[in-house]
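Hi U.,

Before I forget, here's the chain from the pilot set. I'm dumping it here mostly so it's searchable later in email.
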Amino acid sequence: MKTFKFLIIICFLFSNCDETDKGNLVNYKFYIKNETGKSFSLSLFKQNNSLFSSTSINIDSIELLDEGFLDPGFDIQFSLTKDLDSAEFIFSDGKKLVQTYFNRGINDTINNVLSSSYFKMSNSNEITKTFFFTLSENDYLRAK
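Structure:
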């Protein structure tokens, strides 16, 4: 009977514990903004070259790329970069722009969607941080 009571107490304690106390964490959101003048599809690939995600982005639209929670003491980075190897933009006219993660050899160091340093913070408070990556007409002109 003592064992049963002990198990009940342990279960109660663990049921009230959460892996992450989201009350103390910052919600972050990363968006991509299309200012290229062309619609495009964005495909994100993992390190083994398998497709992670794909989305279509219309002219002058904004799409959510990533969101989550992070301890306010850490630097907020585009969290998908730890899983991703490359990004491929295919524009409506067939032109293509390929970018690779900056720590993996040959890479695109101009306005790279896989690097959080190219995301600009637009909203910041103690609860939420919002970042935007803008793909511009200059990026379209670099496409082949």
